[in-house]
## 1
Amino acid sequence: MAPENNGENTPQSCERLIIALDFDSKEKALALVELLGERIGIYKVGYQLFMREGMGLVRELVALGKKVFLDLKMGDIDRTIAAALRAVPEGVEFVTINGGKATVAAAREGRGKRDRPLILSLTFLSSLDQDDLRALMMNENLELDEYIRVFTRRSIEAGCDGVVASGESIREIRHEFGNRLVIVAPGIRPEGKTRNDHKRALTPTMAIQYGADYLVVGRPITEANNSIGVADAIIREANAAFAGRD
């Protein structure tokens, strides 16, 4: 990551851009947060970092004035889910769950009267596609679009605040369900960048035009030689796309 240019003008920021802190240590994660400064207000903490650093890092990020997307895809018995949500500290903006109606109800119970964190259901991993779905479900006739449509409807009916969705499914979800839910789009890749293991990656502009509310970017920024330059380019593109859509 290149050092920041102290002679530059105050950088733009994007309130709806989330950076995935896919690191193996708190030191590396916090170094990127410091480097990006006021540009980014929300950071995603997933399994890799949480297993090493735990909730202590989440609280440090909150103390720095950042919001946190706690991406742990929680799924367990109702009592455990409710207890887990009660333990989530203020400043966590999103959590992901993996379960049905009872799991969602338990998460809402644990959240109590707070309006945060927003409870997100994962539709289908961005690293998987139509062929993977059919293999997983052992159904050669199962269509990904229909699966995601039914899953999203059930998530809304269960009480989820939103979904994590990838690729063209974002457009289908927004078209069918309107503004009834928040859509978070992972695996965002700038034009010309490798998709890594995301089979249904989108550019920032495409995801926003399809209807995404928040974008998650990881390796294009975290592994860049010039993280600030890449972040600034994505911020400019995202802000322009949001302005054009809104």
Note: The chain has one domain: 14-245.
## 2
Amino acid sequence: MVRIEKIINNKKQFLDLLLLADEQEDMIDKYLPDGDLFALYDGDLFALYDGDLKSVCVVLPLDSETCELKNIATYPEFQGKGYGRTLIGFIADYYKDIYHTMLVGTGEVPAILSFYESCGFEKSHRIKNFFTDNYDHPMFEGDIELVDMIYLKKNLRK
């Protein structure tokens, strides 16, 4: 049974999972305090531990019209099973009466861009050298070095 909870306190307890999507903790620290953290669980509703945690995401308000999906991560063994897509669908519905647009930024990796496009995002703009200027080490997704940040946007109101 899938359930999604908004986490109010102790957000850093999810750091191990957040680091899968953004591997530099000081970058996460820039958006986690002001962002909304959501956790997706799939398992027994009455479990006494978080062994059924599959995915998390952080959404940050940018202005009265726009929010940004700053981080979305799924444990590797559960990737490709629809948890990320479910979480994006949930947050798009959650924010549709609050914001007009949701942004997400990512590296120029075809599989990741394709995933976001399949979730209803379309390419918006690019920030040149974002990864090389903001991270203290070269960033890679597989064998692709991340240089520019590619932003995609999703209209939350149909």
Note: The chain has one domain: 2-155.
## 3
Amino acid sequence: MSTPTEISDGRLVELIRSRQSMSIAEVGEACGVTATAVRQRLTRLMEQGLVERATHRQGRGRPEHRYSVTERARRQAGNNYADLAVVLWTELRQVKNDEVRRGLLERVATQLTEMYRGQIQGATSWDRLESLQSVLAERRVPVEVGGSRDQPVLRVHDCPYPELAARDRGICSMERMMIADLLDTPVRLAQCRLDGDTCCQFETKRPSDTITGLSRDATTPEATPAEASCGCQHG
């Protein structure tokens, strides 16, 4: 029999998802592991919010516990929309009218903002960035908060939209708009990994900055070199 460390969490979640629900005995038989190993792994997955347990009674016999994946696990498992996202983004960028295209870009950023807004807590930009860091960490986006409390920065070490960014650097503009909306403060892209920098660095407004130079609207001539090179200056 295999040891508990040989069981992959992802494999077990996918197995249960494909079977709708399973008992400990069924999981053990399918994976070739002991009931103890299965219980340990299922307990951890329940603590992570990926698996839930329900009690089923069959006649007068002893009730049986059956395990199924949660809605959270289904969303994670079904989050394979890369091809669709690339197609939709490409079509958006093909819109000829600059004003219409910019408006669509802002609407996409606004919709992403609304997805995260309820999870962002804190009264200051630093606190809200730390909250955003936690939210992105759950989505396996490696970020860190740095700088100072007066001018915090968000460093993104790996792009959350790699396929889109590789085709169109304008995705950076949308990401910057979203961060600015979540922080409710102007933000600029000071560094970009696509330019060879070690990370994408989003900086909040310095005391000497004007709202014009760092506003949500990236059409001003004060856009940084990183923003201009990624197409942010033109929306």
Note: The mean pLDDT is 78.
